[in-house]
Amino acid sequence: MSDPIGRLTSTLASRALQGPGAPGDAGQRVPFTRPDEGTSFGDTLTRALNEVSAAQDRSEALTGAFLRGEPVELHQVTAAAEEASLSLELLVELRNKFTEAYRTVINMQS
Asked: Over 50: is that where the pLDDT of 17 sits?
């Protein structure tokens, strides 16, 4: 089985190089940018959570539009759903890694 984090990272990197999506695409995409040097970890985490939420909202909007019979291509719906799924999967994996790191630090202090 392939690495889901690696797939998402390469997908996000390729989209960042392409820039924002065209109007009518699966929503307006914001290109990935590095946070400023002064950006806190909490701000970066909040931004990541907001991006995952936005991907899920885009997926729901496109799915609803498709079901209502609006002019939305099936591949757009599928791509948005996959993007939302991979984003959530990445977020869960990050949470697991942070939890594991926290437990490791706590065990080192004991």
From this structure: no
